[in-house]
Specification:
By secondary structure, this protein is an alpha/beta fold. It has a single domain, classed as Glutaredoxin (3-Layer(aba) Sandwich), CATH 3.40.30. The chain contains four helices and seven strands, in the order βββαβαβαββα. A five-stranded mixed β-sheet has the order 3-5-4-6-7, with helices on both faces. A two-stranded antiparallel ribbon has the order 1-2. It binds zinc ion. The site of zinc ion has 8 residues, from loops.
Length: 148
């Protein structure tokens, strides 16, 4: 009998690392600690701690939107990013980080302008995309780099 393949998914709400069988990714798996749905096609909000866990250790691709409330183009892109999150589920998780609240994170990532998107796979950055983009561009970007 084959061993079921599982991936590690960090819960963006509580930070718990969950192991989820690959076969169950499309069934709305929930966090074992807080009950939050881990793969739901919605954009989850990260803080410094969950950002590092998700981008460094998760078994599924993660696309992070680095934004700030004062940034007009960021706010304009938000509904497009949400659309892309639904389209890319359950293969990619889309999340956002408020760079005004967490400047140390965007500084470390070398982000000079926002919005900026960074795609992470296997615990490392694989590609980034700068500037506000429509959903179609965001989806194409993820797929072009082997996610979704
Ligand atoms: Zn949780």
């Amino acid at each position: 009998m084959a061993v079921a393949e599982a991936v590690k998914l960090t819960c963006p709400t509580c930070g718990q690392a969950n192991r989820v069988p690959v076969a169950r990714l499309a069934e709305g798996p929930k966090c074992g600690v807080c009950g939050k749905t881990l793969v739901d096609g919605l954009v989850a909000e990260l803080d410094a701690s969950t950002h590092d866990k998700v981008t460094r250790g998760d078994g599924m691709p993660v696309l992070v939107d680095y934004w700030a409330p004062w940034c007009g183009p960021c706010r304009m892109m938000a509904p497009e990013f949400a659309k892309a999150a639904r389209a890319l589920a359950p293969a990619v998780r889309l999340m956002k980080l408020n760079t005004e609240d967490h400047p140390e994170i965007s500084g470390r990532a070398g982000i000079r302008g926002i919005p900026a998107l960074i795609l992470y796979k296997g615990g490392r950055e694989v590609a980034r995309l700068a500037g506000a983009r429509p959903a179609a561009d965001i989806i194409a970007f993820a797929r072009q780099h082997g996610a979704g």
